[in-house]
Structures are given as C-alpha cells and as structure tokens.
C-alpha cells in the first residue's frame, strides 16, 4: 500500500524527492500521513479536492481488498497569512 501511494504521488508532484509517508494504526484503520513540498500541496489536493479524493478512492478499494480501512491525510505546512489568524491581537 505504501509503495502505491508513493508511486502515485511522486508522479503528480514537481519535487518527488520531498515526498514522505508515515503509516500508523488509528481506531482500527490504517492511517497514512503524506508530506509533500509546500509548493506541491495544491497539486496533490487538486481542484475542489478531486485529486486527493481519487487517491482516497483507490486506497479505499485496495484496503477493502485486503480487509483494511484506510485513511489518507495530507500534512499542510504552508503558513497562513497573519491576517487569517484567528488569535486576537496581543494586549486584548
């Protein structure tokens, strides 16, 4: 399963050498945490989430065949603009 994810994602991104994957077991499901270059996050998510949705569908089908529930999460380390922060300004 890990090799399938890495193969597909590396084919999508501009920086395949920065693709990382961590697998763990959470609530009876196999959780895959995908990390890509901040520049590639949008490519992996796709317009309206279509690309990541397709990846999740493929992984779900592969997992079902193996009798596993599978989850895929993408780590998004891009920084939010300061104005988008929900924290109140200091001193208030």
Notable characteristics:
92 residues; alpha+beta; GMP Synthetase, Chain A, domain 3; three-stranded mixed sheet; 3 helices; 3 strands; 35% helix; cell shape
Task: Explain what you see.
This protein is an alpha+beta fold. It has one domain: K homology (KH) domain (GMP Synthetase, Chain A, domain 3). It is 35% helix and 23% strand. The protein contains 3 helices and 3 strands; from the N terminus they run αββααβ. It has helices spanning 2-12, 41-45, 50-65, and strands at residues 20-26, 29-35, 69-75. A 3-stranded mixed β-sheet has the order 1-2-3. The chain is globular. The protein starts with a helix and ends in a 17-residue tail after the last strand.
Question: Can I get a quick summary?
Answer:
With 92 residues, the protein is α+β, with helices and mostly antiparallel strands. It has one domain: GMP Synthetase, Chain A, domain 3 (2-Layer Sandwich), CATH 3.30.300.20. It is built from 3 helices and 3 strands; from the N terminus they run H-E-E-H-H-E.
């Amino acid at each position: 399963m890990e090799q399938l994810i890495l193969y597909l994602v590396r084919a999508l991104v501009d920086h395949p050498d920065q693709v990382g994957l961590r697998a763990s077991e959470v609530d009876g499901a196999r959780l895959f945490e995908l990390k890509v270059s901040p520049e590639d996050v949008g490519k992996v998510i796709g317009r309206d989430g279509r690309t990541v949705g397709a990846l999740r569908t493929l992984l779900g089908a592969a997992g079902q065949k193996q009798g596993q529930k599978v989850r895929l999460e993408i780590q998004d380390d891009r920084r939010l603009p300061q104005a988008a922060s929900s924290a109140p300004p200091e001193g208030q």
